[in-house]
Sequence to fold (102 residues):
Amino acid sequence: MYDMKNLAKLKNLEAHAPEAMKAFWAFDKAAWAEGAVPKKYKELMAIAVALTIQCPYCIELHVGRARELGAADPEIAETVLAAAALRAGGAVTHGTHAMKEA
Fold:
């Protein structure tokens, strides 16, 4: 189901919703631009988010971009574990709703 070749189908979205896609691409470009947060850090954040939302396309794309920007294995590994801790922490804190008051 997940095949990077599917991303070529983005052209179909552009064909059927050109203004919305134009706006999306402009926003995407602005969000990833160098700014107060360096691009490498943005890519590491994107890896964490991609892992948390479990999007294989995003994982592959952002790991590749992070590596192109100089991210090393230890940085990526720590990013993976930070994402795992956040996801697990969310389950634990939401688990408080399952606990009955004494």
In short: The chain is about 70% helix and 0% strand.
